[in-house]
């Protein structure tokens, strides 16, 4: 029977690699050849999960309903438009009954009144526009074969509707905008604690993109919610935003972050270990704040993050002649000089984690893919052919770090050496 699972799992992996996948934002995921099955980790749980994956995908992902926090309004913990914040929760069971995984949703930032007025009419600014049910996949999956370490935990997805990485505390009465991310964070944590999270003996705070940045900012706050005997750690996916010059020499992302920090009044809510040394705007960049995070922290990031390439490294505003149009959307269209520029960005990312890597409590998985957010998608989190560095995938690397099974500090070789990447290509 095991040989049958081996063969079917292998054939499914090959089939997956022949497909081009389309995502909701009109992007395509190009699948490369999978890692041979014999190179998977020797952990039997991971092997069995890989072989059973083909069967699991016959069933659709778990759909989880939206819970609004009714007590939030009285505390002023509201979305940009004044509506109630919310989250999706699926209860744990068995060995995971007292374990909690809280994931903070991402969705960019609004750094001006005009942009925030637009955002408050979307799901990233109002619970009125949020989906009533969302799929739990990747690190939120309830299937052992898709999420071996966390499938039976209490798993929560906190919706993002403040435009400031859950960190602002201000408002603009004229535009009827509420920048209450910090209050939303607090009231959601209070609600979850009342629903059993206070009994957790294991907890993991995670997030992707703007949510990944929020996971770094709130990591130590999250740790203080639990007794010292609990195992509490944090995971940031695609949240390592760098303060580096764009292709024109201008610091586009610094300008954007300055608008977010000042507009939303988040100066007092950023990590004090950083703000005592730097301007608060500088502390919104994780490269300066990760050193002051005392709680164990894991970074999942690509060295060629597609969001940073499009928005902060080669934005249209800095590309007056359109030289980067093709490369910005499709890595295969990058010229040699453009790849050299992106290799410089990779070098700066590796430099940014140099001090972080000296602390054994931390971990990271920095691969050489053109992607953004890899823990939320099943094909990149854990599946046949998912991205690997040497013999380890993302889910296994995170699990090894969280449960102290092994040191997990992996840096990929430079592009184009990694043939396990699931690259994003934009139309």
From TrEMBL:
GO biological process: cell wall organization
Record protein name field: Pectin acetylesterase
EC number: 3.1.1.-
A cellular component annotation (GO) from this entry: plant-type cell wall
InterPro entries: PAE/NOTUM
Compartments where found: Secreted, Cell wall
Family: Belongs to the pectinacetylesterase family.
């Amino acid at each position: 029977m095991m040989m049958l699972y081996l063969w079917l799992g292998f054939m499914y992996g090959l089939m997956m690699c022949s497909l081009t996948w389309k995502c909701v934002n009109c992007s395509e995921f190009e699948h490369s050849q999978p890692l041979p099955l014999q190179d998977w980790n020797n952990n039997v749980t991971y092997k069995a999960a890989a072989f059973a994956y083909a069967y699991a995908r016959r069933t659709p992902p778990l759909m989880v309903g939206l819970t609004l926090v009714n007590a939030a309004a009285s505390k002023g913990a509201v979305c940009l438009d004044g509506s109630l914040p919310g989250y999706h929760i699926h209860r744990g069971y068995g060995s995971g009954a007292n374990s909690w995984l809280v994931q903070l949703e991402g969705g960019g930032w609004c750094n001006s009144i005009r942009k925030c007025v637009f955002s408050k009419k979307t799901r990233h600014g109002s619970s009125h526009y949020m989906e009533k049910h969302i799929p739990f996949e990747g690190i939120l999956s309830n299937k052992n074969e898709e999420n071996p370490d966390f499938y039976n935990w209490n798993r929560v997805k906190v919706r993002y509707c403040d435009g400031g990485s859950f960190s602002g505390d201000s408002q603009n009465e004229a535009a009827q905008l509420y920048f209450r991310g910090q209050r939303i964070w607090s009231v959601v944590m209070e609600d979850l604690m009342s629903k059993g999270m206070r009994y957790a003996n294991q907890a993991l705070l995670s997030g992707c993109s703007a949510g990944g940045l929020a996971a770094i900012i709130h990591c130590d706050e999250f740790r203080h919610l639990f007794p010292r005997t609990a195992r509490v750690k944090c995971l940031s996916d695609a949240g390592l935003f760098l303060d580096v010059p764009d292709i024109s020499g201008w610091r586009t992302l610094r300008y954007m972050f300055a608008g977010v920090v000042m507009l939303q009044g988040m100066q007092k809510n950023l990590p004090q270990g950083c703000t005592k040394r730097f301007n608060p705007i500088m502390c919104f960049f994780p490269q300066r704040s990760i050193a002051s995070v005392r709680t164990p922290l894991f970074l999942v990031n690509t060295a060629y993050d597609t969001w940073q390439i499009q928005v902060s490294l080669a934005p249209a505003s800095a590309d007056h002649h359109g030289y980067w149009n093709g490369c910005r959307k499709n890595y295969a269209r990058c010229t040699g000089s453009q790849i050299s520029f992106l290799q410089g960005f990779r070098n700066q990312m590796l430099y940014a984690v140099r001090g972080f890597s000296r602390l054994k409590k931390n971990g990271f998985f920095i691969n050489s893919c053109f992607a953004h957010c890899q823990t939320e998608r099943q094909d990149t989190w854990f599946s046949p052919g998912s991205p690997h560095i040497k013999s380890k995938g993302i889910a296994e690397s995170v699990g090894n770090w969280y449960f102290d099974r092994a040191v997990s500090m992996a840096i990929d070789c430079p592009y184009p050496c990694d043939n396990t990447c699931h690259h994003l290509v934009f139309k």
